[in-house]
Structures are given as C-alpha cells and as structure tokens.
Amino acid sequence: ATVAGPTELARLAEGLNHMLATRQQHDELVAMLARELEATAISLVEAREHERRELANALHDTTLQGLIAAMWQVDALVEREGGSPALERLRGDLEALINQTRGVTTGLRPPALEESGLGAAVDELARRTERESDLAVEVDDRLLGARFASGVELLVYRMVQEALQNARKHARATHVHVLLERADGFLRATVTDDGIGIDEAVLAERSHEGHLGVVSMRDTVRLAKGEFSINQGAAGGTVVNVEVPVAAGS
User: Fold this and answer.
1) Which end of the chain is more exposed for a tag (fewer CB within 10 A), N or C?
2) Order of strands across the sheet with 175-183?
3) From first to last of its 250 residues, what are the pLDDT tens digits of the chain?
4) Rg of the chain (C-alpha set)
5) Residues forming a β-bridge with 191
6) Which ranges constitute the DSSP H helices of 138-230?
7) Can you say whether residue 38 is alpha, beta or left, with left for phi > 0 and alpha for psi between -120 and 50 degrees?
8) What is the pTM of this model?
9) Which whole-number Å values give the CA distances from 174 to 93, 126, 159, in the listed order?
10) Positive or negative, the Cα torsion across 31, 33, 35, 41?
11) Helix (H) or strand (E) holding 53
12) Judging by beta carbons within 10 Å of its beta carbon (0-12, 13-18, 19+), is residue 181 exposed, middle or buried?
C-alpha cells in the first residue's frame, strides 16, 4: 500500500515492529521446545536404563542366587549319595540356566559402559553376541577411548544392541561390521550386515504387530536432535546409521 505521510509511516513501523517481536518470540519458543525435547529424549533413555538396572539387580539377587544355591545342593547330594545320569542332567540344566541369567543381567546392565566407555562396551557386546550366536561381529572403534555424556553413550549403545539383535533374529546375517567414530560434532555408529536386506513392508508389518524396536530407535534419536537411518546396503544387507550431537570437548 502507498504510504502517504508521517502518520502512515509511523503505523507501518509499528506494525513491522510488532511482527518482528512476534517472530522473535516464536523463534525463542521453538528453541525452548527443541531444548526440552532433547532433554526429554535423554531423560527417556536414562529412565529406561534405570528400569533395566533394577531388573538386573533383581535377577542377580534373587533368581541367579537361587539357581546357584540349587546347584550347590545338587553338588552336595552327588558328593553324599553318589552321581547318577539324572543328577548330572539336572546339574547341567542348572549350570546352563545360571549362564543364561548372567548373560541377561549383563545385557541389562553393561558394566563396561560405565567403567570403560562406549567403545569398550560395544566390543564386549560384540564378543558376547559371537558367543551366543553364529554371527561374526567386527568392531572398528575410532573413538580412542573418548568419553561422552552418559545419556548419549547409553543411547548409542542401545542403538547398536538393537541393530545386532535385528541382524541375528531377522536379517539371516553371518557377518556384521560396527563403526564407531566422532566427526563434525556428532557421535556416529554405523552397523552394516550381510543379511537379506531391509524391506519397508516387513518393517511396517512388524511395527503394526507391536515390534517397535526400529521405530523406537528412530524416534528416540530424533528427539535427541540426532539422525537415524536404516537402508539397503550397496552390496545387499542392511545399514543402520545413528548420529547424535555431542558438545565440543566432551
């Protein structure tokens, strides 16, 4: 519209100033919401970890100790009464259950993550995966022992764990390569397998059936202002990539 004089100019300036002030308030609100979403994502990861630790402690202090006590009783019975095939089978079953329970508690509460950091914890996870399956897991750790905020390390560790579980259970893979690196202000984990590849229709079907591992990974990472992708590899198989921003110097 044509500006005819000082009054119109003053009104135009007032309107523009109001628009700028509203825009600034909007930008500040968006920035605040983004910070709250990021904090919520990390808090969600930490809350899940707290539940896992509580479950791991309960398994260790009750179920595992009960199984060990039962095996001791079997050993005492064998020593007192003599062995038999039935008792040997029972002892073997108890020993297998003890090892399985220990494996579960370690998965729920990975001690290497808190003690030694992400690289060591992922390497321990890879070795445990190899012991429990036919999957060969190679870890290329380029973090050089660097430590990050506990919530960020937990988030990336669980992403790698979920990707390895999918490679074992669904991809029919024989080999997995895990790359850990820090670049361009991001902590990055890339998990590549040689399995049957990704099928979006299968992912959607599994999501509708309540299998939400991939969906949960994607949403949690994005809430933390990170990037998550799952794609077909160039030579087949599946590539899962996770990038989470990290502060300079952390």
Assistant:
1) N
2) 136-141, 175-183, 186-193, 238-245, 227-232
3) 555 667 777 788 888 888 888 888 888 877 777 677 666 666 766 777 667 677 777 777 788 888 888 888 888 888 887 778 888 888 889 988 888 887 777 777 677 888 889 999 999 999 989 988 989 999 999 999 999 988 888 889 989 998 998 898 888 899 999 999 999 899 999 999 999 887 655 665 655 554 556 667 777 787 778 899 888 888 889 999 999 998 765 5
4) 26
5) 178, 240
6) 150-169, 200-208, 213-223
7) alpha
8) 0.64
9) 28, 13, 19
10) negative
11) helix 6-58
12) middle
How many CB atoms within 10 Å of residue 74?
18
What confidence score (pLDDT) does residue 217 get? 75
Pairing status of strand 175-183 against strand 136-141: parallel
158 by DSSP, 3-state: which? helix
Contacts of residue 207, defined as CB under 8 A and 6 or more positions apart, other chains included, come to: 214, 215
CB 164 within 8 A of CB 132: no
Give the position of tokens 């109001």.
18
Tokens for 221, please give them: 């990472």
Q: How many beta carbons lie within 10 A of that of residue 122, not counting itself?
A: 27
State both tokens at 185: 């202000």
| DSSP 3-state of 146 | coil
Is residue 152 packed enough to be buried (19+ CB in 10 Å), middle (13-18) or exposed (0-12)? buried
Assigned token pair, 37: 């979403």
